[in-house]
From TrEMBL:
Name of the featured protein: Membrane protein
PANTHER family per the UniProt record, alphabetical: BLL2462 PROTEIN
Membrane spanning stretches: 12-32, 39-57, 664-686
The entry's keywords: Membrane, Transmembrane, Transmembrane helix
């Protein structure tokens, strides 16, 4: 209990001061005049002024508060290297034991786990965790903070005042002195690149704890595929040119060979994601004659802003020559030599829509098309009655690459096309809208070209299992054959129409090698806080995949069937950085957070990063490996500025309390005040009356 004196003036303070000054002057005049009872009169005047000041006796009931000690335990990914985790756990247990004596004295010990998981996107943030852990503690209650860490902390405050308290900060460092490590540092990282062109990446191999100048073998991968194996000098800048092969993210990894005795190979690899941008897809559409479904292809391709369409319709074949001079015709001559000889390789896709050989294209140009496909081009033949005629394109050199030949007959009965078993798995037709019901929820066709000797993959069939859509790979290129010319009925909404846009767009993009439409593909994507692994396959099962975390830990993941031809697995993304999955044949990559986490930039333990901040607070820095029990002795310090020694650390114990009750006794209130004033006046009157 504490006693005190408080004032609550009955008049404003300026008036009280004026009254006190006036009373003092009168009292001084009375004393100087040496009249009888002058001192008692001065006392009476003072009591009157004191009564106006309204003094009160106070009584405080206080409750002592505990001193708080914060212990921040670094659980970031860099603590997984070497034996740091074991050292930190042992140090935590020993420190808990040594702090027990402070608990007996009323101290509160708070252990704060910091770092770890995918939440730390900007390195190890121990001071942020410390501030959050002490958010409910007044600064005067904090006795100090102790960090159990490897020293790689990335949120050190610029000033001591930013800590929010005045108490010692100590750092106990895991790891060993003299650690060695090799890492790859990126110096130039382009963000975008044109598909088909090269981009230059700058990098440097740095060795810590080892002499500079070593010759280092480097492996460069693009989406998991090795593209270069240069040899560079450690500490010197280097560059590598990488071709951008597809639209979307092209993940390039630069990996240096391991350094003997190094701490970890995790940061021997750096990655950069370059977004591939297509310089417009060029498509050549050749219509053999005007027909009702011709606009379907044109409208579909023209609606895609990324497609540059060149469309020719043959209106005047050679057999319809009537002698009219060319310069009097309002028709554009078909530039066959320019298109099929000089610039054929500029096109990403060639489409023959109901085209029959009428002498417009010489046979040598069909040979050019065959070579174009075998070298990586794409050909789509939308067939109709033209395919069974004597002028069928099958009776040209294209027969070597077309997946089926005509029998000369056509099926002309109403039917609904169905997805084949392969079509239910193929990315072009899998889950095609309307295919889930029986019969499929799309309109009927009325014509089908009969074929034999079909090869490749039939994804859609008609009556008696006859193929409607055939897909095939030829050399480096791809070929598709549509054996009905009634897909335009879907576009016109006949009998409710059908998914012509989905089918034809997927088909054209598969021909142009869109990665998402590959039949055999392994893909990883980040979804919220999880990683999803997907395997597209034409097989009945998918083998387990091996997933490698950013820290190099591997795990086997079993994929579950999610749809025909699609297998999937989901697991938490508990580490930042580049994740890798492989099934032995295919490789997939996904990045969580920054491609090259700050956490892995420098992984050797150090006492120097925290030393300036620690010493500015009077604390100390030690290595666990140099101390008995991994921690120094703990001493409670009541006063002084020194809180650390060679083998001890001090904590500033606080004497802090909070007021739980307050009692007031006004001295001049009521009868007591009246008696005091009367006593003063009576004493002065009595003395004067003698």
């Amino acid at each position: 209990m504490n006693l005190g004196l408080a004032f609550d003036p009955l008049i404003p303070l300026p008036w009280l001061i004026a009254a006190a000054v006036l009373a003092g002057a009168v009292a001084l005049l009375v004393v100087v005049s040496r009249t009888r009872g002058s001192l008692l009169r001065a006392l009476a005047i003072a009591l009157a002024v004191l009564a106006i000041a309204n003094p009160s006796l106070t009584r405080e009931e206080r409750e002592p508060l505990s001193t708080v000690v914060a212990v921040v335990v670094d659980q970031s990914a860099s603590q997984d290297f070497g034996d740091r985790t074991q050292m930190t756990q042992a140090a935590r247990a020993e420190l808990d034991t040594r702090l027990a004596r402070l608990r007996e004295q009323g101290a509160e010990i708070r252990f704060i786990d910091a770092g770890g998981g995918a939440g730390e996107v900007d390195g190890t943030r121990l001071f942020t965790a410390l501030s959050a852990g002490l958010a409910d503690v007044p600064p005067e209650r904090v006795a100090g903070a102790i960090f159990l860490t490897d020293g790689r902390v990335h949120d050190i405050p610029a000033t001591i005042a930013a800590l929010g308290f005045r108490a010692p900060v100590h750092a106990i460092i895991s790891g060993k002195e003299g650690e060695r490590d090799r890492r790859v540092a990126l110096t130039s990282t382009p963000r975008f690149g044109i598909v088909g062109q090269n981009q230059t990446i700058g990098y440097r191999v740095e060795d810590e704890g080892a002499p500079a100048g070593a010759r280092v073998a480097v492996t460069v991968r693009r989406d998991g595929e090795v593209v270069a194996r240069p040899v560079v000098t450690a500490g010197q800048p280097a560059q590598v040119d990488v071709e951008i092969t597809h639209a979307g993210a092209n993940i390039v990894e630069i990996e240096a060979a391991a350094l003997e005795g190094e701490l970890t190979p995790v940061n021997n690899r750096a990655a950069v994601s370059i977004d591939g941008v297509r310089d417009k897809l060029r498509v050549l559409l050749v219509s053999g004659e005007p027909h009702v479904g011709e606009r379907t292809w044109r409208n579909l391709l023209k609606s895609d802003a990324n497609v540059d369409l060149v469309h020719f319709t043959i209106l005047r074949p050679p057999e319809k020559q009537d002698g009219t001079p060319i310069n009097e015709l309002s028709l554009i001559a078909f530039p066959t030599r320019e298109l099929f000889q000089q610039k054929i390789k500029d096109f990403d896709l060639i489409i023959f829509d109901r085209y029959a050989q009428q002498g417009v294209l010489p046979m040598i140009y069909f040979d050019n098309i065959v070579r174009y496909v075998e070298e990586g081009g794409a050909l789509l033949v939308a067939a109709g009655t033209d395919y069974v005629s004597d002028g069928s394109v099958y009776y040209t050199p294209l027969d070597s690459i077309l997946p089926a030949g005509p029998t000369g007959q056509m099926t002309e009965t109403p039917y609904r096309a169905h997805l084949t078993q392969a079509g239910q798995r193929h990315p072009v037709t899998r889950a095609l809208p309307g295919s889930q019901s029986e019969p499929p929820a799309w309109s009927r066709f009325f014509r089908l070209v009969d074929t034999d000797g079909a090869r490749g993959t039939s994804v859609m069939d008609g009556p008696n299992g006859k193929p409607v859509v055939l897909l095939d790979r030829v050399g480096e290129g791809r070929v598709a054959l549509l054996l009905s010319d009634h897909f335009w009925l879907w576009a016109r909404g006949y009998e409710g129409g059908g998914p012509h846009i989905d089918l034809l767009r997927r088909l054209s993009h598969w021909l142009m090698k869109e990665p998402d439409l590959e039949e055999e593909r392994l893909k990883m994507v980040a979804h919220g806080g999880d990683i999803v692994v997907e395997r597209q396959t034409m097989g009945d099962t998918a083998p387990p995949v091996t997933v490698t975390t950013p820290t190099g830990v591997t795990r086997s993941v079993t994929l579950e069937s999610a749809a025909p031809g699609l297998f999937r697995a989901t697991f938490p993304a508990d580490r930042l950085g580049l994740w890798r999955a492989t099934d032995g044949t295919h490789t997939a990559l996904v990045n969580i957070g920054p491609l090259n986490p700050r956490e892995f930039a420098e992984v050797t333990s150090t006492t120097e990063t925290l030393r300036p901040t620690v010493e500015a607070t009077g604390g100390g820095v030690w290595r666990m490996a140099d101390l008995a029990g991994f921690v120094p002795r703990v001493i409670a310090v009541r006063s002084g500025e020194r809180f650390a020694g060679e083998d001890w650390m001090g904590l500033a114990m606080r004497d802090v309390s909070v007021v739980r009750g307050l009692g007031l006794f006004p001295l001049f209130a009521g009868l007591s005040g009246l008696l005091i004033l009367l006593a003063g006046v009576a004493a002065a009157w009595a003395r004067e009356g003698r």
